[in-house]
Amino acid sequence: MEHNESHIISAGIIQHYFSQDIETNRSRNEQSIVTLAEEGAKLIVLSELHDSLYFCQTENVDNFDLAFPIPGDFTAFYGRIARENDVVIVASTFEKRARGLYHNTAVVFERDGSIAGIYRKMHIPDDPGFYEKFYFTPGDLGFEPIETSIGTLGVLVCWDQWYPEAARLMAMKGADILIYPTAIGWNPDDAIDEKRRQRDAWVTIQRAHAISNGIPVISVNRVGYEEDPSGQTSGIDFWGSSFIAGPQGEILTECPDSEADDRVCEINLSRSENVRRWWPFLRDRRIDAYGDLILRYRR
Amino acid sequence: MEHNESHIISAGIIQHYFSQDIETNRSRNEQSIVTLAEEGAKLIVLSELHDSLYFCQTENVDNFDLAFPIPGDFTAFYGRIARENDVVIVASTFEKRARGLYHNTAVVFERDGSIAGIYRKMHIPDDPGFYEKFYFTPGDLGFEPIETSIGTLGVLVCWDQWYPEAARLMAMKGADILIYPTAIGWNPDDAIDEKRRQRDAWVTIQRAHAISNGIPVISVNRVGYEEDPSGQTSGIDFWGSSFIAGPQGEILTECPDSEADDRVCEINLSRSENVRRWWPFLRDRRIDAYGDLILRYRR
Known about the structure:
By secondary structure, chain A is of the alpha/beta class. Chain A has helices at 22-38, 73-85, 132-135, 164-172, 192-213, 271-278; strands at residues 8-15, 43-45, 88-98, 101-109, 115-120, 146-148, 151-155, 177-182, 185-186, 217-221, 223-226, 236-239, 243-245, 251-254, 261-268.
């Protein structure tokens, strides 16, 4: 027996390449938001750190100039666009919280342009070409979904996507949907089969968060090549492949891996009710036996 | 830089259909184990409850006759086969622990035929056609991997496969590999696209456990149609599709969905070292913020 309530939202995703010029990036983001809103999108998700190049390829103190306070110039810009287009926007910024204290922060704007909430990236990566631990203090707001007029959004950021714990905690607090602004790409020197495995793993684990929690996932990545300013590595080929999956992990829409792409996709949030009735994973969690999850390792 | 230590094990998987006759099922299982051992398998994994039909399609007290104590007739039979063929075997049984106290239990046999350890299924499903809560008391041994001569095995069972918590806890205690004996299938009345989504979700979430933990996964399912003795449902089409995935979730081998299949596949356990060096997810877990995972829900 199907549960027939229907709650459909139109989600827009913006998969862009970016330049060194912040004003150009913002202007292109705004153009895309306007177009997607005209096409009916009520929720629009941008990729991670979408106002700049991915500056974490090197450790350079001058890059702290790219950070903005919240509220500030960044929130004024995207808040205005949310209001003018009557859309909820999930945006991403380099947050300057205090001198010497910075975060990788997602900001959710309500349709009236107000800030519905922020999420500070909790899991911070650090590997060659992705020196994020240099720039970003790990988030201190926990895994708290953000209430909006179109649903409760479980906003996480990039590296968080590898952690089922984060997705679970969002779902357990009522997230209707998981959202991952992302900046992930290939080392151009890697072999083609290694590249395929990496992208496939990235898609697979996020689809699994949808499955284990019975809610949809939106993941938006940047695209295109960005060189390493230090010349030490071969730079990064951001692999795009932004996608939306339904509550069984089924792919609803998927962008290409090597070009910019904006698109709108309908998500039926009430399908989660049916999926969770048939696959009631939340019912059977062995919370009496999960205590060791707060350990670093069990031996 | 690759880490060049190499630790390859040959794993054999046995995807069978079963009949009402236990002796026939056991005899066919033994034949397959002998053949796979001859082909070089050092670890052999059977599917869930492989000595009988999937009796949980109805709630019938007479089915408790199918249970065996540990140690007992079941462990004597498979222990002998392990010893005679010099292989580690992951077997699955309906355990009679006491009068009125039964478990769905995996038993790991060492190459000398001794019992290396047991795992009692922790997450117990219950939905039409899968009335497991009637038969199986939830496991009380927790998520403890089993040490063997060929590696530390994170043995879980079927419904556990939907829970990233279970996989994580096994990995955190040193599991080299995750193993899921399974009995999962389709309602024959479901539409083809629903069937596809279900099987795809089942593969995807287990691949994701490999990815998030950087270790391989072996999942072995039964295959073929079994009717519902009560005639209330259309029975179950067990979908086979047993597979082995590497530590990036990459599929190493995959069985068909509608026929019996025994096969051997090499797994390079030392690839986990490389994968975890490049994707050090264990390094960055936010254990300070995971406390709520032991709650039923967060609101």
